[in-house]
Amino acid sequence: MQNLLPTESYEQQLAEKVSRLKSMMAPFQTPEPEVFRSPVSYYRMRAEFRIWHEQDDLYHIMFDQQTKQRIRIVQFPVASKLINNMMAVLIDAIKSEQILRHKLFQIDYLSTSSNKILVSLLYHKKLGDEWTQQALKLREELRNKGFDVELIGRAAKTKIVLNHDYIDEVLSIAGQNIIYRQVENCFTQPNASVNTHMLEWAIDITKGSQGDLLELYCGNGNFSLALAQNFERVLATEIAKPSVAAAQYNIAANNIDNVQIIRMSAEEFTQAMNGEREFNRLRGIDLKSYQCETIFVDPPRSGLDEKTVEMVQAYPRVLYISCNPETLCHNLETLTQTHKISHLALFDQFPYTHHMECGVLLEKLN
Question: What is this structure's pTM?
Fold first, then answer.
């Protein structure tokens, strides 16, 4: 039975990351990185656990990545306090209900800093009306205990949503509250505190920008909404339908009138910009009317593909957020042929792990 508290100090692990990032960025003559810390505990807004059944008992577990040993989780200080509070209450409530506990193998939690939580129960069995009725009672019991909770049941080819499959986060960004709809199984930034640092850093370094902003990989509009204040217009692309729908909701909920979302991949948008393909999804959107002086990219771990890097080089300013410094450095080998790095930041999004999130602003060489 473990709480999975980290063994090394926060300061030690952060210093190691700063040193490693400086070493990786040395070939590109970057300025000193701005370093944005994470809370030391209770920082992760989502978590998932396998469920272990032992006679009448059941409990959360994780597996040690090295030894594959099963670890019983009582408290998980990596996750938000809301997730920790929910874990014990939920297990106690499920234990006594055979329909809810039978063949339950995983529980996923998604929480917000605005005190909302979405819980997904995953099963190796068919789910039907009986399960729905018990789950409705469970949700009512949890709400009576003060949890603003949404419940979802999942099984093979089945998804039962009792009310909504999303929750709405509210973040205070540079003194302004911004609403972000977060949909189950769609990407959201895991560390709300560090996400706030990233957004405020991006706002700060793009103040006084000229023209429009083009954003690739916009997700639910996390950066688009925050950065809209610094640009005439924002044109953003995203391929996942639920994320596009969430972004459209977020634009309306925040009364933002200068952001346009297009459902396209970065590769497709590059083809459209190069005139290689025509897309019905671009009907009614005059790409040539946009005067994009800045492009923003927050790609997956694989980084930017070669054609997108070439397209990105055409823009005077490139704002690049990366969850994988290795692929960022690979892209910088090309980008720094035409641009210089004027800002560098380290965001400790994933404390006590090897992973680093960082950001660079590149400006075209004269």
Answer: 0.92
